[in-house]
Amino acid sequence: WSLPNAERYALQYADGRQTYITESNRRDIKNGSILRLTTSPDQEAERLYIGIQSKNVDVKTDSLKKLADLSQDITFAQEFISRNGLKQIYSIVEEGNDAGEMLAYTLKAFTELMEHDFVSWENLSTVFIKKIVSYVNMNAVDASIQQLSLSILENMVPTSRLLFELVKKEVTLDRLLTHLQVTNAQLQLKAMALLIALLLSATDIERRDMMDYLREKNIRQFIHKNIIHSSEPLGDEMAHYLYVLQSVSLNLCEHRMKTSMDPYSQEQRDLLQSLRQTAFESESEVPAGTFSTERRRSLCAKEFRKLGFMNNSNPAEDLRRAPPGLLALDNMVYFSRNTPNAYSRFILENSSREDKHECPFARSSIQLTLILCEILHIGEPCSETAQAFYPMFFGQDHFFEELFCICIQLVNKTWKEMRATQEDFDKVMQVVREQITRTLSLKPTSLELFKTRVNTMNYSEILKLRQMERLHQEETLAVPVLELREKLKPELLELIRQQRLLHLCEGTLFRKISSRRRQDKLWYCRLSPNHKVLHYGDVEEGVQSPPIESLPEKIPVADMKMLLVGKECPHTKEKSSGKQNKDVLELAFSIVHDVEEYCLNFIAPTRYEFCLWTDGLNVLLGKEMTSERTQTDLDVLLSMELKLRLLDLENISIPDEPPPIPKPPSSLNFCYDFSHAEQ
Questions:
Q1: Cβ contacts of residue 563 below 8 Å, gap of 6+?
Q2: Read out DSSP for 488-501?
Q3: Other CB atoms closer than 10 Å to residue 544's CB: what's the count?
Q4: What is the tens place of the pLDDT at every residue in 158-180?
Q5: CATH class of 489-633
Q6: Where are the domain boundaries for CATH 2.30.29.30 in the chain?
Q7: Residues 156 and 121 sit within 8 Å (Cβ to Cβ)
Q8: The domain 6-233: what is its CATH number?
Q9: Where does CATH 1.25.10.10 sit in the chain?
Q10: What pTM was estimated for this model as a whole?
């Protein structure tokens, strides 16, 4: 436009994020984008830099508001920061003379400018940080300012150890818990974000101490009641923070999981002995002097064998494998102490079974603990995007141990349902893993509900589900089966062709649609049994299947030139484009025949009839069948034929490659020579 001083102007998107157009992003402009002419980023940055220093409150507020909006743009942010604009923002916050709306705009602008990573968070002064902390710790502060302050601290914490320690010291966990208990969902979200940032930046010991303190303060019950079951739906961001909190909490088990049992540790040996004493209390009450040491050792070994330890003379050996390490021992002890009746029932029930059919408690517990660690991703780092938390985790103290107590009883139940022996151990544990993962995928809201659902998913139910899934896996069949599928296709397509021609021989009743749209005239068309002539003619209402002799008109199949469908048909070309007409278009087809290019026009009564007739006519013309019905019928027939042919191969894995054909023998002299016999 030949504007004077063109460098003072720039183009900017008029809608959404009002980004400036620069050489680097001009290629991203889409057709239809509305742009506006505005002052250039450097001019705007200069104006706002002066404006935020103004003594006039209105000018200063407007400048800060505009600054908060424009700071999202990287070009503007660069210009503003290069003028040392952040220093002015620091001074506004540090002086602390402004409050309310003006302070909110200042903090918003600061957050947006820091997002671009031009300036390190470590450059912030202690005075500035403490001022931000004070907004979080004070009660009589506007909620929007508290939200922005929490967001600034959350971004600050992961950048350096010093900032983490400063924020952790100044913003207490009690203060964050207070913010979590407000009704303002945004403030709650920002408080949760800062809490998660602190937990992720802490060392293992600090994290354990923080989680212990939060447990004392009943954060779990509060989250379960006020966040998960609040009237407001849970947003993606909050779901992610709950996932991280669950992951951090479960990962506290990692140390025990990775620690093998020390056979020389008195504490661990006492825990192991407590399992035996709880199960066989009455038998163990015999005075020490009654048996010799050898006899006592033999009795202990027998009891440990009944408990299901593989190495009954030295059961500590079973717990040397890590993972699950000492976590398996902790779970067994928790089960024996918190549900002693269920524990005794498990042990005694299996002691009275035949040797082969007893379910080994200790071996099952060790394997089950490992399975639960894998399912719950214990010892794995948190995903940065996952939102898959379990609502029931926040509804239960000692979640992992309580889940184990339910699942170990499930192992015993499934063992009995499968009539398993020791050789079936791995198979049983595989079914149990499936029962747990399938039930967890239903997202039960409490452990009670989990218990109910996992117990209804018995072995026969798992078999049914597996069978259904196997039936649905036809898209991922082995290569030989796919080759078989291709070989069967021509044979089955021929079957479909025969069916289409048979349908044409039976004939169909069509309606004539005149230009006045009166559907009162009927006509019938059918193919002769030798597939050489099409017979047709008008019929009266109520006639179902007129004999072929009563149809006066005929077209020899040899005279048919082509098939037209939809808009190509002459009887649909002149019609107007109404809704009824669109329906007719989908059902219209015509046969072009004779030298004069004469057409016989059809309107099929249904889409099904349309598919069958167009397929049949294409077969007569020697062309491919193109209707959607052909593909559906072919899929059904292929599926049935494959299942019939593969019946004998059930539960046999089919290799992708055929077995190699052996090389011919080096000498064929072993063949019988008939010429000598004849002589």
A1: 589, 590, 591, 592, 614, 617, 618, 621, 623
A2: HHHHHHHHHHHHHH
A3: 8
A4: 888 888 888 888 888 888 888 88
A5: mainly beta
A6: 489-633
A7: yes
A8: 1.25.10.10
A9: 6-233
A10: 0.65
